[in-house]
Amino acid sequence: MAEIKTVQECAKMISDGNSVMVGGFLGIGAPLQMIDQLVENGTKKLTLISVVGSYPGGGFDIGKLTANQQVEKFIGAHIGTDPALVEGYNKGTIEVEFNPMGTFIERIRAAGAGLGAVITPVGIGTEVESYAEKRMFFGKEYLVFPPLGADFAIIKAKAADRLGNLFYEGTSMNTNTTMATAGKVVIAEVDEIVETGVLKPNDIGTPGIFVDYIVKGLSTEERKTLFGQIWEKGNKLK
Q1: Of 33, 5, 10, 9, nearest to 191 (Cα)?
Q2: In Å, what is the CA distance from 114 to each residue of 145, 151, 208?
Q3: What is residue 235's predicted lDDT score, i.e. its pLDDT?
Q4: pLDDT computed for residue 234 by the predictor
Q5: Are 171 and 24 in contact (CB under 8 A)?
Q6: Which of 97, 106, 62, 103 is nearest to 82 (CA)?
Q7: N or C: which end of the chain has fewer CB within 10 A?
Q8: Which residues does residue 154 pair with via DSSP β-bridges, in sequence order?
Q9: Average pLDDT by consecutive 10-residue portion of the chain (238 residues)?
Q10: Which residues contact 74 (CB under 8 A, 6 or more apart)?
């Protein structure tokens, strides 16, 4: 059964050199409080696994970790939305492993499902070949990628019950449900924690068996206020 802990307690579990999978897409469905605590702790040499580099509005999300020089390696599909990550890649201070977006999430799904590899023709003839083994199957070339797991998966949901069952809302589900299956330790940051039985079975996006720890993050209204402030700031700069 999942344990309810503070953001500070969970962030302390993550050590220098760990691999950390972080859910979200450009701030949407991202565990913002856990990210902020990792920044405050200064945990370094992280392998950061997230679908895209992200620092929306220059104010929040995983870009805080790269800006604070805490990331040694990034595995994802795109880095252009994070200036510090782009700079680190160009200077050679941050190793970047590029994956087509579908390949990225399929590798994580494979790790969670206990599969041995992901075999895909996507990336043939591109620099993506350098991250995989090329093989022939039935007369056609494919790239063979290993599954992609992590020491920790930090995910975000709208609500959790006390057993760790998670409810997501809208597009904030994004990569979180898949990452929940592929971390050795899974930390779920949620808007609210409800009593067991409140969540309807058909509304549960991640069963509690996958979740080790639950932390209370920003409320829904607090997140809306934060996003609104970033939006207003961005428009004023134009």
Answers
A1: 33
A2: 14, 15, 19
A3: 58
A4: 62
A5: no
A6: 62
A7: C
A8: 22, 187
A9: 96 98 94 97 98 88 96 97 96 96 97 97 93 95 97 98 96 95 98 96 96 95 85 61
A10: 47, 48, 49, 50, 53, 66, 85, 89, 94, 95, 96, 97
Say which amino acid occupies 171. T
**Angle at CA of residue 148, ends 147 and 154, nearest 5°:** 145
How many C-beta atoms lie closer than 10 Å to residue 98's C-beta?
Answer: 19
| Domain residue limits, the chain | 3-117+150-233
Q: Are 64 and 55 in contact (CB under 8 A)?
A: yes
- Other CB atoms within a 10 A radius of the CB of residue 170 amount to 9
* One-letter amino acid for residue 80 of the chain: G
What was the pLDDT predicted at 1? 80
Identify the burial level of 117 via C-beta atoms within 10 angstroms of its C-beta, where 0-12 means exposed, 13-18 middle and 19 or more buried: middle
Radius of gyration (C-alpha) of the chain in whole angstroms? 18
User: Cα dist. 62→19, 128, 131, 192 in Å?
Assistant: 14, 23, 23, 22
Architecture of domain 3-117+150-233: 3-Layer(aba) Sandwich (3.40)
How far, in whole angstroms, is CA 79 from its chain's centroid?
Answer: 14
